[in-house]
Design brief:
Layout lengths: L1 H24 L6 H6 L6 H6 L5 H21 L5 H25 L24 H30 L4 H32 L10 H26 L3 H23 L13 H25 L11 H32 L9 H24 L5 H20 L5 H24 L7 H25 L2 E7 L4 E4 L2 E13 L2 E11 L5 E5 L2 E5 L4 E5 L1 E3 L4 E12 L2 E10 L1 H18 L8
Antiparallel strand pairs: 1-10, 2-3, 3-4, 4-5, 4-6, 6-7, 8-9, 9-10
Helix pairs in contact: 1-4, 4-5, 4-6, 5-6, 5-10, 6-7, 6-9, 6-10, 7-8, 7-16, 8-9, 8-11, 9-10, 11-12, 12-14, 13-14, 14-15, 15-16
Length: 587
């Protein structure tokens, strides 16, 4: 009976999603959501992406994802039957809550009859980008993963059971959640970097934080599950983190959609939707907390405090501290305003002052954990090599962020030297995908640290007045403004600068075309940056407003190491996928 109901739910969900997609593709502007997020000239990939490009569609996407996950769990016989049925029941209840929110406050099928507009309002120009196609669905898939983990944790708490099979199941879903959240955050950062025109890749915006905090929780949960598998410890902590991740996903959703913050990333600003999301949060997390109070938590062994496992535990705890520090900085201005205490701003200095030391300490703990049990030669070699490397970097490129440089160099060399030695001792490690995946994921973290250090400390910027015939030298690149052109695009008119880029020898290397666009639908003005991508760094051009006849404000930046951020995300995602490789018997 349960499987029959799940099949019916899945069928109805597929019909709903396909119906909305067909409405977009056929320009059915009698549907309010279509009229507000599309028009007849919108390219079809963006019409598909508009399914999740607005509040109503994104909630339908979330509910559809829960239904699909529910069906996968219900029809795949790999769990103890009683536990499996309970997980499916809990997920169905949560999904009912999501669908109730959709019906009451976020209906994507609301009609504009009989006053059907002749043309839609178009999708927000900022969202007409590959980032929209990839960033939001990946973030929502991560939220869906935490919803499944929430259901599994509540079921385990209700049954007071925590077995090796449950650990493996939780690890599988946590890895999937972590992988898609890694990709979602990376694509969001990349979108902000190349689309918003301000040249940054991370600004600690509340909406950025809303997706980054669950990623930190997923990272900590992965390490706790690793310790649970090895030491049969931290069962209760792992289950509580599953519930916490789901809670923070809903809190992030509330921040994005309730109107309590202003951001270019925000989906909506309707207080009634915020109330509905908070009601969903209370009605799902509240019973989970009551189950913990009533049934207690599963018994487990004491947490390991010594050796490599102890360092892994402390690293996971530091990651949680970082998550709550980011959460506090995100919510504090909101609470300050709600209590009518005035306005207060919490910006990058606060987040960097807390997050940078914690990240460096986590990296050092990871490196030391790898070096334990390696005798004295390898650690000594790592310390000497990292000291020399750090000194060389700081002499060649002075910076006050020596902590980032030293931690990154130490961790990178610890990983590299330890890996080389272990491969010499046991070449068969390359045939173990999980081992390779673990190394790749941690290498990705180191590359992210080094890339962030490079672009944050060694970026070169110039804000200059430029017109035809003028030039500027930035980071051994000569930028020459050749001409101003007018470009007619789909739904916009752009003023375009033709920029010639020469190297230090005077040889032309590229022509860049930054634009300042005016969208005719609502006369919105946006900047379209131009990039000269190079392995070691990007040359970034952004065209500002016209200052005088024929002259424009131009931002010229050289961003060393910026591509390390995207490479690190790719390595971490690949490492996570390899860690999903089925475990051999006896491992």
């Amino acid at each position: 009976m349960q499987k029959t109901c799940v099949a019916m739910m899945l069928g109805c969900t597929v019909i709903a999603v396909l119906s909305l997609a067909i409405s977009f593709l056929t320009n059915d502007f009698s549907v309010a959501y279509v009229a507000n997020n599309s028009n007849s000239s919108l390219a079809w990939p963006y019409k598909i992406a508009a399914l999740w490009g607005g509040h109503e569609g994104s909630f339908l996407f979330w509910a559809a994802g829960i239904t699909l996950a529910l069906a996968c769990i219900a029809f795949k016989q790999h769990l103890e039957p009683a536990f499996q049925r309970l997980v499916v029941t809990i997920l169905a209840g949560v999904n009912a809550g999501f669908n109730l929110v959709i019906l009451l406050t976020s209906n994507p099928f609301a009609r504009l009859l009989p006053d059907v507009p002749a043309e839609g309002r178009d999708l927000n120009p900022l969202l007409q980008d590959i980032g929209l196609i990839l960033h939001p669905p990946l973030i929502f898939l991560g939220y869906i993963g935490f919803t499944v983990l929430f259901a599994g944790a509540v079921a385990a708490l209700w049954q007071r059971r925590y077995s090796a099979d449950l650990t493996q199941w939780l690890r599988h879903w946590t890895l999937l959640t972590w992988i898609v959240l890694t990709g979602g955050n990376a694509f969001g950062s990349w979108w902000a970097y190349h689309e918003l025109g301000w040249g940054g890749w991370w600004f600690w915006d509340p909406v950025e934080n809303a997706s980054f905090i669950p990623w930190l929780v997923a990272t900590a949960l992965l390490h706790l599950l690793y310790l649970n598998r090895r030491h049969k410890a931290l069962a209760a902590s792992s289950l509580i983190l599953c519930i916490l991740g789901y809670t923070l996903a809903l809190i992030g959703t509330f921040l994005v959609r309730s109107g309590v913050i202003d951001s270019v990333h925000a989906f909506a600003s309707d207080p009634s939707r915020g109330i509905a999301i908070l009601s969903l949060l209370l009605s799902t997390v509240g019973p989970a907390l009551l189950i913990i109070a009533w049934r207690g938590t599963p018994d487990s062994q004491p947490a390991p405090l010594a050796g490599r496992s102890g360092m892994t535990l402390f690293g996971a705890l530091l990651t949680l501290v970082a998550a709550f520090a980011v959460l506090l900085g995100t919510c504090y201005p909101i609470l300050f305003k709600m209590l009518d205490l005035g306005a207060i701003s919490v910006g990058p200095p606060y987040f960097n002052s807390l997050f940078v030391p914690i990240t460096c300490l986590c990296a050092l703990l990871a490196a030391i954990a790898l070096l334990r049990g390696s005798g004295w030669l390898i650690p000594t070699l790592v310390v000497v090599a990292s000291t020399i490397a750090t000194a060389a970097i700081l002499v060649a490129w002075p910076t006050d962020k020596w902590m980032w440089v030293s931690a990154g160099a130490f961790t990178a060399l610890a990983l590299l030297i330890t890996l080389v030695v272990r491969l010499i001792q046991a070449p068969h490690l390359l045939s173990q995908p999980r081992q390779v995946g673990m190394w790749l994921a941690h290498f990705g973290l180191v590359i992210a640290m080094l890339g962030a250090t490079a672009v944050s400390n060694y970026e070169q910027n110039a804000m200059v007045r430029m017109g035809p015939g003028t030039g500027r030298i930035v980071a051994d690149h000569t930028v020459v403004y050749e001409a101003t052109e007018t470009v007619n695009g789909r739904g916009f008119i752009a003023t375009q600068a033709r920029i010639r880029v020469e190297d230090d020898a005077g040889v032309k290397t590229a022509t860049l075309l930054p634009q300042r666009r005016t969208y005719m639908d609502d006369m919105t003005e946006l900047t379209e940056s131009a990039l000269l991508r190079q392995p070691l760094g990007d040359l970034y051009l952004s065209m500002g407003p016209e200052l005088e006849q024929g002259e424009y404000l131009m931002r010229i930046s050289y961003k060393p190491g910026i591509n390390g951020l995207w490479l690190s995300a790719a390595l971490m995602m690949l490492g996570g996928l390899l860690c999903l490789w089925p475990r051999r018997k006896g491992q």
